[in-house]
Specification:
This protein is of the alpha/beta class. It is about 35% helix and about 15% strand. The termini are far apart.
Length: about 400
């Protein structure tokens, strides 16, 4: 009897010591540029904390679970100013954080990845949608949470084809990003059986449209610009530079829907999304930030939650251990999109559904019914394994 009592006391002492032990500290860095990019719409101007607010919400979620596992997560934000050395900033973050969420242009992300290659730091690309980062310029230490242009274009194309809107008038902006999006849309059209009946280029000549005569000029310009097109079902705009696409709906010469960079827009997240429990995270986000959750917020949230999920499963803060688990077959993360998200092992791109939104409602979610795949329907969006040019190194 006495021996059993002593054993029980010993177990209690061990448990008390475990609870009293210092928590496992997991530091996550967040690297982005200061300032925000203006949009054509006054009601869609991004907030100064766009993205980082989502990551902070995920840190809160991670710490809720972490209380039971004796783990503690922190976020360190670095905002780059003009002419700052992005590699030096990344190295500074890597001194105390084993994981870095990056919202950077493609070239800068590659510079950071190459700088930190030998340090074991794991990068999460939350902002760049360039396909080349997952293909010919892929890096073995970068996980891509943001969808690619090809994933966005494929998600849109599947719905347009499902609707039998197979004849497209493609209007492309004159900037490099616009042309990359147009490439993805052409690929999607060929892949899913749509036909681009004509392409037109909208040249950015500069100048301000927010003037007393701006609306009048637009109302006359857009119908003339879209006049005399071959018969088409939908106008698809490639305008990542925010120059003209928002002026197209309701102003085309022919009464046709607009999609792509305006009208029906493919995105990783939308403030109107309320399915699969999304209303819960939407409400929590609004309560904390007094604004709606953007795609960038959700991508950053997902990146930080991937770290939290893998850390809880491995009970380790070691970046190599966590990274190996995320790349493995047992990893998935729930992100309020109807199914758990996993990683493509050939290019480290996160599989995910694409929402199609019109600014007020989510119209549909791709992949669409009938677009089948031998492994995962999500792999009908973007570059599939047999097509990849990626050689992770």
């Amino acid at each position: 009897m006495m021996r059993g009592l002593i054993g029980a006391i010993g177990l209690c002492a061990v448990a008390t010591h475990a609870l009293a032990a210092d928590p496992l500290e997991i530091g996550i860095g967040y690297l982005r540029h200061a300032g925000i990019k203006a949009t054509l719409s006054l009601v869609e101007q991004p907030a100064d904390n766009d993205g980082v607010a989502g990551a902070l919400l995920a840190i809160e979620d991670n710490n809720t679970t972490g209380k039971f596992l004796n783990q503690h997560f922190t976020l360190t934000e670095v905002k780059l100013k003009e002419n700052d050395d992005v590699a030096a900033a990344a190295n500074s973050l890597a001194d105390h954080d084993g994981f870095i969420i990056a919202d950077l242009p493609a070239d800068e992300l590659l510079k950071v990845a190459d700088t930190l290659r030998d340090r074991g730091t794991v990068l999460f690309d939350a902002g760049s949608i360039d396909d080349r980062l997952r293909e010919q310029d892929c890096r073995a230490n970068v996980i891509h949470v943001a969808p690619t242009r090809s994933m966005l274009a494929d998600g849109l194309a599947q719905y347009l084809v499902w609707k039998q809107w197979k004849r497209w008038l493609l209007v492309v902006g004159s900037h490099d990003k616009d042309k990359l999006y147009a490439d993805a849309l052409r690929r999607a059209a060929a892949r899913f059986g749509a036909k681009i009946v004509q392409e037109r280029t909208f040249e950015d000549t500069g100048g301000a449209r927010r003037t007393d005569s701006g609306v009048t000029l637009i109302q006359h310009q857009m119908p003339v610009f879209t006049q005399e097109a071959p018969a088409y079902d939908v106008l698809v705009a490639a305008d990542e530079s925010e120059v003209f696409a928002s002026y197209l709906p309701y102003r085309t010469w022919d009464p046709r829907p607009v999609a792509g960079s305006a009208g029906l827009v493919p995105t990783s997240w939308d403030a109107s999304h309320d399915q699969w429990g999304a209303i819960q995270i939407q409400n929590r986000f609004v309560k904390l930030n007094s604004r709606h959750m953007t795609a960038m917020d959700m991508q950053a949230w997902t990146a930080a939650r991937m770290v939290g999920e893998a850390t809880s499963r491995t009970n380790s803060s070691d970046p190599k251990t966590v990274f190996s688990f995320i790349k493995g077959k047992d990893f998935s993360v729930a992100a309020f999109k109807g199914q758990r998200l996993t990683l493509r092992d050939w290019n480290l791109q996160l599989r995910q559904p694409i929402l199609l939104a019109d600014g007020r409602m989510v119209v549909s979610v791709s992949p669409q019914e009938g677009f089948l795949h031998q492994y995962s329907e999500l792999d009908t969006l973007g570059v599939d394994r047999p097509e990849t040019k990626c050689k992770l190194q």
